[in-house]
Amino acid sequence: MAQMKFICDTERCIECNGCVTACKAEHDVPWGVNRRRVVTINDGEVGAEKSISVACMHCADAPCMAVCPVQCFYKTDEGVVLHDKDVCIGCGYCSYACPFGAPQFPQSATFGMRGKMDKCTFCAGGPEENGSQAEYEKYGRNRLSEGKLPACAEMCSTKALLGGDGDVISDIFRNRVTMRQANGKEAGANLFGWGTAYGGKPAA
Amino acid sequence: MKLITLAIAAAAFMVAGCSQQATGAKADQASSATANNNYVDGSSGWTSGDKASWDKALKNRAQGQNDYVRSKSL
Prior knowledge:
The complex is a heterodimer.
Chain A: E1 4-8, H1 18-27, E2 37-41, E3 50-54, H2 63-67, E4 73-75, E5 81-83, H3 93-97, H4 133-139, H5 151-155, E6 161-165, H6 166-182, H7 194-198
Antiparallel strand pairs in A: 1-6, 2-3, 4-5
Chain B: H1 2-16, H2 51-62, H3 67-73
């Protein structure tokens, strides 16, 4: 069974923000809400600058699901973490729990200063009829039920951002690493983590 | 008597919130059920509700992100 995942290849990401724009346009995401964003470290340092596209990582053991007081989150058979906006109370616990800053809150909506939570859906919509107007208005397009993959990954110009079945995209990434190594280039096998950011292992 | 009634009413008010059950999310349709719009990719050859064919269609589509496969097909 497919388990959906994102991988961002830091050796390829050029910080073009095409993924951010694709997401905003595809789902008509309101001003002030960013389901996806590009983070750059060592900005301007030649050879050390790295960028990564970040959104909800659809965690296997999602902390947002664990802390939600009204249990508005659920996980699909494909491992996509989704939520029900009709149940969300906009408390913000999920944003404190999430290590990636994925949960977003509109500035003006249902609860005055802070609306109901909004986040990346892996282009899988929400608990409404697939492809319906109600689903689009609350969660954006449901591309998975249209036989497509997330817009951010499919729009990525350098194919740095890979999205889809974890087995398939990890094979694609592994092949790249092997080819880069064979060509004597930086392997970039550690994806994005301490080593990529700081060039070593964390201090004990 | 009035004091006791008031105390019972206050206690009932205080515990009322504790008995409220979390509602949870509504049931969602499977992703393999075709979207009700005109944007469905008809070329991928999956049938609505058939998880196996939907999985296969998405796996094939994911190969579109594989430069090494795409460059060989050019």
